[in-house]
Predict the structure.
Amino acid sequence: MKVKTILVSQPEPSSEKSPYSRLREKSKLIVDFRPFIHVEGLNGKDVRQQKIDFNNFQNIILTSRNAVDHFFRLCKEMRFTVPDSTKYFCQSEAVAFYLQKYVIYRKRKIYVGERSIKDLDDTFKKFSDETYLFPTSDLLKPEIPKFLDKMKVNWKRAIFYHTVVSDLSDLRDVYYDILVFFSPSGIESLFKNFPDFKQKNTRIAVYGNSTAKAAEDAGLKINIKAPMVETPSMTMAIEKYIEKVNK
């Protein structure tokens, strides 16, 4: 069956030059965006109950823009001034550049992984005697904690925000040819909103092994998967699939 409509379970990109815009124009598709999950921040009282004292940490580990936003939000709420000497260990360039929203980038010590936080192993070793705060959601994959423990990093997790299922009830009678997922939480949201969901002719696109596993565990048939060697991005994987079925 040909593909005409796609629903991406993420916020719409702010740039008109996003890969999805090019995909939409090239293949003459309707591409809609709707976050299946969202985050809700905790307050200072919640943080204190976790026995978190910002004064005890010299470095901050940041793996997402949400972590950046909620770290600085809570610092402001709790009237904590982040020292200029604080070092930031960022998972990617996107996260590091996002820091510019809160700090003068060129005046801070910011370390960036090429693909993941694990790329900074030598830097962690250099500052092995220092303390690290790791702001996260209530949902956290085990890979990074395992890495930090393996590196014998003196770190502490701080839950600053919760990942919450979004209300999608207005989509109950809306049909899309492809549903695109980027996390197990997105799959969970689908079935929490629509417990009676039947895949039928809907194609499922997933990004990452954990998302694929969640989809398979939920009984979904995966039609499009990324990243792959030939299709490292989701838009490339979708485009390749469409070229095949929309002949």
